[in-house]
Amino acid sequence: MSEFLKLPRGILKRILLFLLALMYVAIGVQHFTAPEGFVAIVPPYLPAALLLVYISGVAEILGGLGVIPFATRKWAGWGIIALLVAVFPANLHMALNPQDFPEVATGFIYGRLPFQLVFAVWAWWVTQPDAEATD
């Protein structure tokens, strides 16, 4: 792993950009192929849980695809960050009601909260243009 971190910044950034895109597209697709788990975490005070899951799925797919072209990368990064803010209530709902999710490991439930910040920083860093970048 330490050798991986010694990669030149540009290569590391491109690898992390690709992984970010892959992760968001894959999770976005899951919103359509297995929406039940996502619906379950939508806080009960929000209406139309399935519709919200589909909307967030579309946003994740668009964000994941949007980070690939240089022309849309920066805006897609900000879109992913906005999406993370928008879905935070669902993660908070899980953390405040872990008894409602007995099939989910407690560590995962609570670990999701700080990882939202990690994902936001990741999305921001890999979508910011380097001084010499012109892809």
What does this structure look like?
The protein is mostly helical. Helix content is 76%, strand content 0%. The chain has 6 helices and no strands. It is globular. The model has no long low-confidence stretch (mean pLDDT 91).
List key phrases describing it.
76% helix; globular; single chain; 6 helices; mainly alpha; 135 residues
How much of the sequence is in beta strands? under 5%
What form results from the Cα inertia axes?
Answer: globular
Overall SS class? mainly alpha
Q: How do the SSEs run, as a string of H and E?
A: HHHHHH
**Tally of contiguous helical segments:** 6
Could you say how many structural domains there are in total?
A: 1
Helix content: over 70%
Compute the number of strand runs. Answer: 0
Main β-sheet, in a few words? Answer: none
Mean pLDDT reading: 91
Q: What is the terminal-to-terminal distance?
A: 27 Å
Would you summarize the structure shown here?
With 135 residues, the chain is mostly helical.
Write the layout of secondary structure elements.
Layout: H1 2-5, H2 9-33, H3 36-41, H4 49-66, H5 70-96, H6 106-127
